[in-house]
Amino acid sequence: MKRAGAGDAAVDVIVVGGGASGLSAAIEAAAAGARTLVLEKNAMPGGSSRLSVGSINAAGSSLQKRAGIVDTPDEHFEDMDRFTGAFSSRENLALRRLLVDNAAETLEWLMSLGLCFYGPTADPPHRHPRMHNVVPNSRAYPYCLGREARRRGVEIRLGARVDELLRAPDGGVRGVSALIDGERVQFQARRGVVLAAGDYSNGSEMKQRFRPELAGIPGVNPTATGDGHRMAEAFGAQLVNGEVVYGPGLRFVEPARPSLVRRLPPSWWLGQLMQLSLNHLPIRWFRPFVMAFMTASLGPEAAMLRAGAVLVNAEGRRFTDELAQPGLAIAQQPRGLAWLVFDSRVAQMFSAPPHHVSTAPGVAFAYLPDYLRHRKDLYHRAENLDALGAGMGMPAGALRQAIQAHNAQLAGEPSSKAAAAGRGAVTEGPFYALGPLESRIVITDGALAVNTSHQVLATGGAVIPRLYAAGSVGQGGALLAGNGHHIVWAVTSGRRAGRFAAQAPQRA
Q1: 353/290 Cα distance (integer angstroms)
Q2: Are 483 and 57 in contact (CB under 8 A)?
Q3: Which of 77, 78, 362, 388 has the fewest C-beta atoms under 10 angstroms from its C-beta?
Q4: Nearest-10 crossing angle of helices 20-31, 140-151
Q5: Would you give the DSSP letter of residue 75?
Q6: Which residues are paired to 132 by β-bridges?
């Protein structure tokens, strides 16, 4: 891929962002005959898609049909009602309809570019197995999409931070301004600009505006700072559902070295081998391989807290009601870290089905022995609480005192929330801890208002000429809670926005 260079440029379509949505937009724009330029601020493409699990929920796919599963977009549309919660009245149902009607075709398109998926697998509360899981890892998205973009003649400039939309005499967009190696460069777009700059999960200013209690909690993707949202708003665009933020979620800290699955090359041959193996051979043969991924990328289930696990900070102090909003409290602790402490009763419960420590939907479940095997840096065990605390570097006696106080509170307040939930005291040795844990914002659904042609709408509802949006910045009010929806929206909306931009009349 070409690295950033100086000098003004004029193309047909400019795509801001080189993640799954941006690369998909660029491919389709180029396929429609448009000279296309991608401007990506990072040193490599991929965006949040590179960091994701990479699963896609789609109804009516060829993989479903091969497995004898009868499923329809109508059923998928209905099942999404189960995820929207308190924001259901604010969803853009036209865009949800667009998503479910195009999801299977998007999946087939991705497979035609060399991505491999196994499944479909069950993902309750979806009524049918419709989760398609990418293999060998989510890096296959930028790898295959980037390769196709280059084949189509798309120019991709890395290290190009776009920070302004340029206004044409008719009030629409004529191009963008970017910083490249410290130099200001303007790029002209004859037909359109597609914003595909991701979400604002790590944008403290936007989180402060919409969800101030989350402003200090970092996002999973450190470069998802809401650049596209800010530029478009400054241009007069309308923002919707800014309050819809997923998190804070609890995640185990990343291992010092990336897991084996993350290091695998995203090749077609390896993907095909894994797809065939996972679909046709006993899963127990691959369980250690899958566990190496899961225990490196996920966090604990809330069921552990409900069962009686206690959260403590680096000082060995219990600091919150575990059944309230522990993610908010963890972010305020020393170094933003916490540990799960539990006794042998809970340890035994979460060592085998049906109780699991972590899950990657459609992939597998991880139990306590899996963390002992694959994440020894997170796994702590001792015969008594003083030894457990000492092994984690906590002040002498602090952990024991915190647990004793917790147990006394449970005994003295039988009507408390914890007691009512069936939480047990931490009393049966040996004792265990998992951690450190950190709190992260996973993704945001606040986005620019768009129509079904992915044109960005101004605050008054009018279309902003030649400005399109895709992916998280272009959700337009669609609510994508549930697994496998954000990435299928990224690719679907990206492809469509790229086509519409390429077909737009050329700017005078």
Answers
A1: 17
A2: yes
A3: 78
A4: 20
A5: H
A6: 56
pLDDT digits (tens, 9 = 90+) for 392-405: 999 999 999 999 99
Domain boundary among 440, 459, 479: 440
Residues 91-115 pLDDT 10s: 999 999 999 999 999 999 999 999 9
Distance CA 214, CA 259 (A): 29
What's the whole-number mean pLDDT along residues 222-235? 96
Domain hosting 40: range is 9-51+138-246+443-503
User: CA torsion 384→385→386→392, rounded to 10°?
Assistant: 120
Looking at the structure, tell me whether residues 405 and 468 fall in a common domain.
no
How far, in Å, CA of 322 to CA of 337, rounded?
Answer: 14
Give residue 6's pLDDT band: very low, low, confident or very high (50, 70, 90). Answer: very low
Confidence of residue 421 (pLDDT cuts 50, 70, 90): low
The rounded distance, in Å, linking the Cα atoms of 20 and 486 is 10
C-alpha–C-alpha distance, residues 503 and 106, integer Å: 20
pLDDT band at 1 (very low <50, low <70, confident <90, very high): very low
Q: What SS3 class is residue 160? A: strand
Q: How confident is residue 88, by pLDDT bands cut at 50, 70 and 90?
A: confident
pTM of the model: 0.88
What is the C-alpha separation between 451 and 234, in angstroms, rounded?
19
Beta strands in 41-123 (DSSP E): 56-57, 116-121
Q: Which two tokens stand for residue 412?
A: 């003295």
- 508, 364, 504, 499: which is closest to 31 by C-alpha? 499
Determine the 3-state secondary structure of 469 from DSSP. strand
Query: Helix/strand/coil (H, E, C) string of 104-156?
Result: HHHHHHHHHCCCEEEEEECCCCCCCCCEEEEECCCCHHHHHHHHHHHHCCCEE
Whether residue 119 lies inside any domain: the answer is: no
